[in-house]
Amino acid sequence: MTGEIMHIRALTAEDIAFGLSLCAQNRWNQLEPDWQRQLALEPAGCFVAEHDGQRAGTACFCTFGAIAWINLVLVERTMRKQGIGTALLRHVLDALDARGITSVRLDATALGQPVYARLGFAPEFTLARFAGVPAPTADSPAGVEPVALSDLPALYALDEAVTGTRRDKLLRHFLEHAPATGRKIASPNQVEGFCWARPGANAWHIGPVQGSPAACRPLLLDAANRFAGQRVYIDVPIANAEAMALMEELRFTEERRFVRMGRGPRVVEQLHHFWGSFGPEKG
Asked: By C-alpha distance, which of 17, 46, 9, 14 is closest to 281?
């Protein structure tokens, strides 16, 4: 790939249809609102590569304080193996270096992992994507309530304690744009756990799901009731034995795995309290 035939520019709302076409090529789950969310949360962190004047690929990042997530790294099928994906990644990393962001994270597919390793990313842990069509249970678990605006400070604190990342803008965006799918279990003094869901091209994605095992199990059983008869995905750390056992209990099937990778100072997550990832876009 030579500099004369490739150009990287800012991704705009007019490029979302192109991004969705790349998702469809790879059977990814993103819908238009997922791309709109990325643009809303990090408008200067979205890029398109053009090859000979044609759009060829995308890559984005989203920052949460001193931590960044790389996401939506996609290359047009007919233009692969020409260095476009690597060029986009280097462009993203240069932009993050210019901001002084040293902890950079992503969830890698098996195809992408060697590329990321060459750029200095190291594996941290593995997530399994489970898929299934839940059957309704006889009774909804007790104590599950909708998330309210007043819960946000407690959700921010719990999410940070579990993920090591302060993702306030992501959780607020969820509550503002998809309030109906948020659920919590709370004691008089604190939120014990929370669960969100969003629609996708192939399935509902359940996550993030964070909190104590005593809260996350009923939250996921409640989600199984709410989405009974519909296809769902959930990305579970394989180190969380209780969450993995619940996937078996719900008769979900493992479809694929992701490797969470990091570059720079490591972010440590509390995997016993991490029951479902937001997804590869934001961890």
From this structure: 46
